[in-house]
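Annex B. Sample input.
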Amino acid sequence: MQSNHKQLIQTNHLVLGKTFIIGFFGGIFLSVFFGVIHYFNIVEVNLFHPWKLLFTHYDVSIKWYLYPIWIAGYGVLSVPIALVYYLIGKNRNHWDIGALYGFVLAVISYIFLPIILYDQHFLQKYLLKTHISFFVLFIIYGVFIGYSISYERARLQKERTYRETISTE
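Annex B, continued. Sample output.
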């Protein structure tokens, strides 16, 4: 019994460690894809605008090598978001909870954060294609984060039960 409890804790620690990796690469993929669709004028929101405001406030010149650093910064910012999903929805091995999580993230980051930080309403400022693209991008991000974490947890649990059945035989 104690061995099973130890293996369950070990499985949870492995999933928690992989959550950091999933969150980091999810943030990198999100920011790279967002930068690409901004480059092709699909969205009007510039992903690097908050970073540019921060760096120009401190009178730092913006060079090309800052963009990969900012992308890695979004990867680091994505780790706590993945940890929140790990705490909330790791037990569901389906894409729907990840899509719902992505939609909630989009509502928070697209509607509430600009009002709190910049006193702006993005819904009135940009075109419909920007709104749709932003929400779809965050839903895809939520599905990536959610399904990756849930799938990894289910895979490790299945592997653990398989080892238990082999050891009992």
